Every structure is written in structure tokens, then in C-alpha cells.
Amino acid sequence: MALTALAIPSQVTTFPCPFDATLAFTDTQTLTATGYLNNLNSGLLDLGGAKPVSAVGRTDFIWNIDITTIDVSSADETYQFALLGSNDSAFGNGNVELLAFYDVAAASSGRVIATLLGATPTIPPTGLGGMLIQKPATNLALRIYYRYLKARVIIGGTTPNLICTSWISKACVDV
After folding, report:
1. What is d(CA 47, CA 55) in angstroms, rounded to the nearest whole number?
2. Structural domain of residue 57, as residue ranges?
3. 97 class by beta-carbon count within 10 Å (0-12 exposed, 13-18 middle, 19+ buried)
4. pTM of this prediction?
5. Is residue 22 domain-resident?
């Protein structure tokens, strides 16, 4: 059975998360292969630098991924979004933690847990866009505060093509 909205009449709410270029990984970046979301701020957000996003310690935020174009025409394309944290600005091997994750695929076989998850609900057709993913997140994991953030997408399939914008927003503090 496919995922469907509840029968209760209501307006779907989103988190009020305005785009702020100083908190953005990317702005309308095109990707056709695995890589970092990084055409703004070198893709690295420093939560505790000279102009810190928050005081030293925990930072709660909404991680936004606004997808304007996504190709799922061959039905085997997959897009796995990972929000990474580190206390090493170089994100050296072994110094990184996964803070948040979301995967998009036209078929359940492309999802991270293919035996449980169906195809991603309401994937827009190529070129039409309109998918906004908002994930509440924090830089605290395993009792460690991570100062630096990066966003990465692992892409697979026959003709993958993705155009997206990604940022964090402190507009929503109740995570």
C-alpha cells in the first residue's frame, strides 16, 4: 500500500525557514554524480567561528533541501542526502559523524531500507521540481558537539540529474 495523507482535512504545515546565504551549503547547484552540496560557503558551515551561528555547544536547526529538478525517468535513479558533522574542518577520514539522512528514489529498491520503504512519495516529474525536504536536526550526537557541517549527496542510476538548494535555518528552534 502506498503512503497517503491522513483523511483529516488540514493545511500541510512547513517550518518557517527563510533562506540565508551565510547558512547555506548550496544555491541551485546541479549534480549528476556523488558529491558535496558546496557552491556557497565552500559547502562548510562553521557553527562556532568568528561569527558563530550559536553559542558554543548545541545548535538545533532545520536542514532544508529544496529540489527544483530531479530525474527519475529511468526509475533506477537514487539520491541519498547526508548531513555530516565534524570537529575537523578538513573532514578527515574517521573524524566525521552522520547527523541526518534522507533518501529519494522512484522505486523502493532504491531506498536505503528497500524491504520496508516504498518509492519516495510525490516525486515531481523531471523539470517540474517542487520537492522541499525539511529535517529537524542538531549538531549534538553521541554526547559530542560538532562544530562544522557539510552536506553530501550520493547519486546513482542511469540518468541522474539533480538541481537543489540546501541550507540550515535557526528560525525553528523547537526541534
Report:
1. 8
2. 31-169
3. middle
4. 0.86
5. no
- Which three cell numbers, joined as nine digits, stand for 47? 557553527
The CATH number that applies at residue 80 is: 2.60.120
- Whether 123 is covered by a domain: the verdict is yes
CA nearest 38: which of 47, 28, 52? 28
DSSP-assigned letters across all residues of 22-80: GGEEEEEEEESSSEE--SSGGG-EETTSSS-SSSSS--EEEEEEEEEEE--TTS--EEE
CA distance linking residue 31 with residue 96, whole number of Å: 22
DSSP code of 7?
S
Nearest residue to 135 via CA among 105, 113, 112, 103: 103
pLDDT per residue of the chain (175 residues) written in tens, 0 to 9 = 556 666 665 556 667 888 889 999 999 999 999 999 999 989 999 988 666 565 567 889 999 999 988 888 888 999 999 999 999 999 999 999 999 999 999 888 888 998 898 888 766 655 555 788 999 999 999 999 999 999 999 999 999 999 999 999 985 545 4
CB-based contact 34:154 (threshold 8 Å): yes
Cα–Cα distances in angstroms (integers) from residue 154 to residues 135, 148, 170, in the given order: 18, 20, 26
Total domain count, the chain = 1
Domain-embedded: residue 17: no
